[in-house]
Amino acid sequence: MEIKKVNDNMAVSPQIQPEDIATIKSAGYKVIVNNRPDGEMAGQPLSNEIEALAVDADIDYHYIPMIPGELRQDMIDELNEVLDNASGPVFAYCRSGTRSITLWSLCQAGKIPTDEIVAAGNANGYDLAPMRPTIEALAEQLETSN
Predict the structure, then answer these.
(1) Is 4-145 assigned to CATH 3.90.190.10?
(2) Sequence ranges of the domains in the chain
(3) Which long-range contacts (CB under 8 A, 24 or more apart) does 44-51 make?
(4) Average pLDDT of 57-82?
(5) Nearest by Cα to 10 from 136, 115, 120, 131
(6) Sign (positive or negative) of CA dihedral 95, 96, 98, 100
(7) CA 118 to CA 83: how far, in whole Å?
(8) pTM
(9) Which one in 53, 69, 89, 113 has a CA-CA gap of 20 to 30 Å to 129?
């Protein structure tokens, strides 16, 4: 398992396995967010399996599945709620980590500068530059609605 620390409150990772829960807990993460839909690939652990192990390890668990190329506002809202109410650092995963960091980047729109969001992705091997226009549009939308 590869933990890619985005900041002190967030990390992303490619697909985890049941035995990774102990490592996630020992690394101090209090919340796991699964962004990978069940059944995307043969042999992938199911959400309810990871959830049961997370709960047994006293880690909050949230399932926000993202089909590649299908990003919706309700997913952004749901992750924002998780981040706002997290009891500690959040660990999110999907097949490669890309969907997780993309969703995180959109949650940061208007909260931190877009350059910092893109840099956080780059520092972890994810190119968020194509997301720049969407991040900036969301930030502008939030600014005008407040």
Answers:
(1) yes
(2) 4-145
(3) 44/15, 45/15, 45/16, 45/17, 45/18, 49/18, 50/16, 50/18, 50/21
(4) 94
(5) 120
(6) positive
(7) 19
(8) 0.94
(9) 89
